[in-house]
Amino acid sequence: MSYQNVKSTFVLGGARSGKSRFAENLAIDSGLERHYIATGRAWDDEMRARIATHKHDRGTLWTTHEQPIALTDTLMRLDAPGRVVLVDCLTLWLTNLMMEEASDIAAESAALAALLPRLSASIILVSNEVGLGIVPDNKMAREFRDHAGRLHQMIAANVAEVYFVAAGLPLKMKG
Questions:
Q1: Which residues does the annotation say bind GTP (predicted)?
Q2: Cα dist. 64→1, 83, 108, 130 in Å?
Q3: Residues 65, 54, 134, CA angle at the centre, nearest 5°?
């Protein structure tokens, strides 16, 4: 089955696991018009350099949309048959929501998960799996891990395919 027949895919993995590259290759292989929603914010020089490297590596065959907060609105705006939209990444989006402090993270997460089955575009969501390590030693980090775990469960329940990537190797978990 070609990727263009799959409406939604969730790609999880640890830091530098190869998950983004795997997700980008799924989008490229789809043959669809490619859109990239980047949720990261350039808080410092190191992050600015990472963002510049990612943009350079993707090249000109992607339309990039930088959106740190209004993810569901951006997905609705970009929704169209014949498109693939890659969101990288949900954990940065979650971080941004937590930093805003005014956001209802549970409601934002539920709204995103509920939107996915209604979209016409093919959607690929990337996120860091943060629940496999030790229990964090501070309240904010524990809240982040808990929010991410709940978000990941909602997303996985509402997509057609789920992959876990480790050491550059994808393991298909659903679909």
A1: 13-20, 38-40, 55-58, 66, 88
A2: 27, 13, 22, 26
A3: 100
- The answer, yes or no, to whether residue 67 has pLDDT greater than 50, is yes
Q: Is the pLDDT of residue 5 over 60?
A: no
Residue 30 annotated in ligand binding:
no
Q: How confident is the model at residue 2 (pLDDT cuts 50, 70, 90)?
A: very low
Q: Is 20 annotated as a binding residue?
A: yes
Which domains, and CATH codes, for the chain?
A: 9-174 (3.40.50.300)
Is 16 known to sit in a ligand binding site? yes
Which residues are known catalytic residues?
Answer: 54
pTM for the model: 0.92
- 167 is written with which tokens? 């050491």
CB atoms within 10 A of CB 135: 8
Looking at residues 78-100, what average pLDDT do you find?
96
Predicted confidence at residue 162, as pLDDT, reads: 98
Q: Is 7 annotated as a binding residue?
A: no
